[in-house]
Design goal:
The complex is a heterodimer of chains A (about 110) and B (about 110). Chain A is mainly β. In chain A, about 0% of the residues lie in helices and about 55% in strands. In chain B, a hairpin with a 2-residue loop joins β5 (about 40-50) and β6. The interface of A and B includes residues 37, 45 and 100 of A.
Chain lengths: ~110, ~110
């Protein structure tokens, strides 16, 4: 069965600095998607960034970028120029290409120090 | 913009009560999901529905049932609430022609006393 592991329950970073959140996954499939979702204290789960497994190029969305290492089954999220509004729980999630069921990591709580 | 609305942000119920959590989406999405979120466990799928009156069990369906009588509404039912069902419940939806990303409601924090 597919699993998603986030080994960092909590991370903290100084405002304006860069932080990297780790995610590893286990699958035998070749067609899949990976996601980072953000859940701020307001609780709504928001998609931050997605990566298609067949794409070698790492996805980027403004200050957010991923380091996708398919062979190592690693999918880390880098947040540059951290802002106070980035404080949230961050979840890594996996989806098989033909499926609707997301497999979620346990989450990483990101704290931004002013 | 997609809007997924959960009827309550906070809910307190007693052990043994029948509890209804309601979710409504306004984008004519075919697929709807109920998740449970617990610290250290991430999100776990309880049930999902891919059409009106259709449902599939997720990873943790025990103690729950669902109802999808109309396309826009997906209800989660706790038949006889127990204290171990105290949790955050999240609803999500997605169109049939897409498989991602899912659109989420704000969540219902349910406490069973």
């Amino acid at each position: 069965a597919q699993t998603v592991t986030q080994s960092q329950p909590e991370m903290s970073v100084q405002e304006a600095e860069t932080v990297t959140l780790s995610c590893t996954y286990d699958t035998s499939e070749s067609d899949y998607y990976l996601f980072w979702y953000k859940q701020p204290p307001s609780r709504q789960m928001i998609l931050v960034i997605r990566q298609e497994a067949y794409k070698q190029q790492n996805a980027t969305e403004n200050r957010f970028s991923v380091n996708f290492q398919k062979a190592a089954k690693s999918f880390s999220l880098k947040i540059s120029d951290s802002q106070l509004g980035d404080a949230a729980m961050y979840f890594c999630a996996y989806l098989e290409g033909s499926n609707y069921q997301l497999i979620w990591g346990a989450g990483t709580k990101l704290i931004i120090k002013p | 913009d997609v809007k997924v609305t959960q009827s309550s942000r906070y809910l307190v119920k007693r052990t043994g009560e029948k509890v209804f959590l309601e979710c409504v989406q306004d984008m004519d999405h075919e697929n709807m999901f109920w998740y449970r979120q617990d610290p250290g466990l991430g999100l776990r799928l309880i049930y999902f529905s891919y059409d009106v009156k259709m449902k599939e069990k997720g990873d943790i369906p025990e103690g729950y049932s669902v109802s999808r009588e109309k396309k826009e509404r997906f209800s989660l039912i706790l038949e006889s609430a127990s204290t171990n069902q105290t949790s955050m419940y999240l609803c999500a939806s997605i169109r049939d022609t897409e498989n991602q990303p899912q659109h989420f409601g704000d969540g219902t924090r349910l406490s069973i006393l």
